[in-house]
Each structure stands twice: as structure tokens, then as C-alpha cells.
Amino acid sequence: MTRLEGLHSRTLVGPPRLRPPDARHRPRRVAMLSVHTSPLHQPGTGDAGGMNVYIVELAKRLATIGIEVEIFTRATSAVLPPRVELAPGVLVRHVDAGPYEGLAKEDLPAQLCAFGHGVTQAWAGRQPGHYDLVHSHYWLSGHVGRLVAERWGVPLVHAMHTMAKVKNAALAEGDTPEPAARVLGETHVVRAADRLLANTQKEAEELLRHYGADTGRVAVVHPGVNLERFRPDARGVEAGRAAARSRLGLPQNALIPLFVGRIQPLKAPDVLLRAVAGLLEERPWLRERIVVPVVGGPSGSGLAKPEGLQKLAACLGISDVVLFRPPVGQDQLADWYRAASVLVMPSRSESFGLVAVEAQACGTPVIAAEVGGLPVAVRDGVSGVLVPGHDPADYARALYGFAADPARLARMSEAAVRHARSFGWATAAAATADVYTAALHERGLLAVASRPARRDPARGDRAPVGRGVGAAGR
Ligand code: UDP
């Protein structure tokens, strides 16, 4: 094991450029950018997924350690209020940029200028230094982040979430590749960011290899999971599974392999359906005791064929055992995880895979493809099984392994809870705050950002004292 592999979070890929900053010095207020999807949207379909959950949870945790967060997102309806308080210290600001409805993610590059204008308008007239740092998510936000961070003279911290070059290298047959304009856009953002947050060491290496990122600017911080929400039933994993099954109307003695996520070729739910079909062909008696819930809605290139998975189930002759359910809120999702025997995540590419950790946190082991961040999210042979490649026969074998050996299932369920416990948001938010501190430190802005805030009587806003705009631009 290398020195870096052993660390969970807070890992700088390259050597720090300067003396490590004191962790007590933190920004007071961060402008977070999420152009193409709102933290208020229901995850599990369309453009809303792990990134939305990540932003909400991270922002809440940052606020609890004294860092206010304002999240800017594009308004997608005329009736949205301009500001919504998501939690104490976390504000969502809706920015008008382009038509409210009918814009696909692919249309958004043309609206980035308008969005940037909206963000700077929200800032105009405020005390200089209102925001100490910009944290952008996904390349579209990174573009706006470059502009506003430069204008405000503050650092830009960027999280890619997914990368075009990585996705394109793992495309399912016939799937649409990400366009060259995105690759170019990502390259510019990588160059401009003071710090890049990578979910795993692997993602950090991909940033270096595919985008020429500067090693000293990439920091690995594993995302967290809300361990208060995603936890086993207080009566224990077994009793909790039985209770969740009866709440959801699922049979008690069934093998329940669960799929949760946005339905698109990259997530490969088809591999699970093919695996189940193969399993039932070999062991027809299992049909009486298997239920396969698929929780989520179409997304990305999956939107072109929204009924594609239902048609595949019919084609494979397994419609009677597959339950399609639309996306659900996270509390209900926890019940689906508790009810399942195992979560199956056959993704072709996955920058981390939050659902894998959420399921384990509820006491459900995972069968996952050995790609991207999943080898970090799942401990192979301990809290689940990693499968190299996407051959349905391999997934069928792994599934049957759980069906045939209830003792192993019980053992892995307990181990899954223990493994997931190391992914709390408190650790992830503290590590992110350290990255902010390092970025401010490198710009010589630390002393200013960490000064006590005072109230701006005219606006009721807090602002750090004595901060000059653009005082320390690069
Ligand atoms: N999710 C949800 N309801 C659903 C399906 C998914 O809230 O019905 C959430 C899930 O809890 C997880 C996120 O969507 O946090 C998906 O994240 P993941 O990293 O697994 O995939 P991504 O969407 O980022 O590709």
C-alpha cells in the first residue's frame, strides 16, 4: 500500500506548496456554483443525482462548522423565489439565465455568460470581500467560477464530479460520447482552479493523466454519506430488513437485488436485468422467490428511450419479477436499501457511487463493477463483491453466491455498516474546509478570511472586516 492509499481524506496528491496552514483559519462565506442542477431538485432522475446530494450535505456540514454557503443555481421556473434558505447558514439563490423550461444540459454553455452576470449582480453593492472563495461543481459551473473568482480576487476550488474523457473511455455500446467542447471546457477549468477536489485517488490520477492537472493543486476528499439517515434499523439488520419489507409490501423470503440510480446506459441497469434472466434460466425455481426493484428515472442518453429498460425486461421474459419505481426521497430510499438483500451497481463509469455507501450504511452489501471510485466505496470480499467487467454471467454468479449462503450475507451486512461508518460528512466537510484554507493561504488571503465577521447594518449580512476586492489576485 502506498502512503497515499492508506489515507481516507485530506490527501494532497502532490507536495503542499507552502507550509501547511492552520486549520482554524477558514473562509467565512463561500459562493457555491451549481449551474445545471439545483440542490432543491429530487435526485435519481434527469440531471439530479449524487452531485445534488453532495452539495446539500456538504453545504449543511460546512455551515455547522462556521462556513456560510450561498449556492447559485439556474432558475428553472418563473415561480421560484430568488432566495431559499436550505438550512441555517445555507442559502440557495436562483439566477435567471435563459428560458426557464425546455433547456437541456447541452444547451447551457450558451447561457453561462448570463448566469455569470446574475451571480455578479447578486454580489454587486455588497461589502468588498462578501465571498471569500468560490467552489464550483461540474465543468459548466467551473466556467462561471473562473470568471467570478477572478473578478472577486478569491480562489476557485473546483470539483469535476464526472469527466468527459473518463466517461467516453467507458461508453456502453451505442451510447453517445461527450462532446469535444466539454473536454476543452474542462481543460480550461482545470488550468484555472486553485484547487481541484477529487473523490478518490483514482480520480486524482485521472485529472493528472487526462487533463494535465498540477499535482500540488489536486486534493483527494472522499464524499460522505448522511449516517443519521442511512443507518440500519435500531433492532438490527435482520429485523430491520423484515420490517422494511413489510412496509414496502415486499415478500419476506425473497432474494431482492436492488438497483438505485439514474437510468442510463452508463449506470448499466441492463446488466442486472440480464444477470437475473440468466440466473432464472439456470435455476427456474428461484423465480418464485426473487424480486428486482429498480428505483430511479431516466437520465442523460437514457432519456432518448425512457421505456428502454421496461422493454428489455419484457424481452428477457422477467417483467413479472422486476418492479420499476420512480425516484423517492432519501428517507424512503433508506427503507429500500434496508429491504434489499444486496444492492447491485454494474456501472461502466462511476466517479464515486454514493448509493453504494448509502446501502452499506443501512446494512446491505453491494455487488459493484470494479470501476472508478467503487473499489473505495466497497471493500471487496468484506462489505460486498467487486466484479471486473460487465458480463451478466459474472453478476449472476455473484448474486447466487448471496442467495446460496445466508451466513455470508449476514456477515457482509454487518461489515458493510462498519465500512460505511468511515464516510461521515463531518470528516468530508472538515477535509474540504482544509482545502479551502490551503487555497486561501496560497493566495495570501488567510488572515483576511479568518477575521471576525461584523454585521452590515444596511443589509443584515455579515461581512469580514477590511477586505479589498482583488487585493490578492494571482
Ligand atoms: N437518489 C435519491 N432517490 C432516488 C434515487 C437516488 O435520492 O430515488 C440519490 C441517492 O441517495 C444518491 C444519489 O441520488 O445520493 C445518486 O448518487 P450516485 O453517486 O450513486 O450517482 P450519480 O447520480 O452521482 O451518478
UniProtKB/TrEMBL annotation:
Top-level taxon in the UniProt lineage: Bacteria
**Reactions catalysed, as given in the entry:** 1D-myo-inositol 3-phosphate + UDP-N-acetyl-alpha-D-glucosamine = 1D-myo-inositol 2-acetamido-2-deoxy-alpha-D-glucopyranoside 3-phosphate + UDP + H(+)
Family matches, as CDD domains: GT4_sucrose_synthase
UniProt binding sites for UDP-N-acetyl-alpha-D-glucosamine: 42-43, 50, 262, 267, 328, 350, 358
Cite the Pfam families for this sequence.
Glyco_trans_4_4 (PF13579), Glycos_transf_1 (PF00534)
- Asked whether the UniProt record includes Metal-binding among its keywords, one would answer yes
UniProt keyword annotations, A-Z:
Glycosyltransferase, Magnesium, Metal-binding, Transferase
Tell me which residues make up the Glycosyltransferase subfamily 4-like N-terminal domain. Answer: 49-224
**Single GO MF annotation:** D-inositol-3-phosphate glycosyltransferase activity
Biased amino acid composition, Basic and acidic residues: 453-464
Which residues does the record give as 1D-myo-inositol 3-phosphate binding sites? 36, 47-52, 105, 138, 162, 182
Cite the residue spans of the region called Disordered: 1-24, 450-474
Q: Which residues make up the binding site for Mg(2+)? A: 337-338, 340, 364
EC number(s) for this protein?
2.4.1.250
- The Glycosyl transferase family domain covers 244-416
Under the heading Gene3D superfamilies, the entry gives: Glycogen Phosphorylase B
UniProt cross-references to InterPro entries, sorted A to Z? Glyco_trans_1, Glyco_trans_4-like_N, Glycosyltransferase_grp1, Mycothiol_biosynthesis_MshA
Q: What does this protein do?
A: Catalyzes the transfer of a N-acetyl-glucosamine moiety to 1D-myo-inositol 3-phosphate to produce 1D-myo-inositol 2-acetamido-2-deoxy-glucopyranoside 3-phosphate in the mycothiol biosynthesis pathway.
The protein's assembly and partners: Homodimer.
Name the protein family: Belongs to the glycosyltransferase group 1 family. MshA subfamily.
Q: What name does this protein carry?
A: D-inositol-3-phosphate glycosyltransferase
What organism is recorded for this protein?
Answer: Streptomyces bullii
Q: Which gene encodes it?
A: mshA
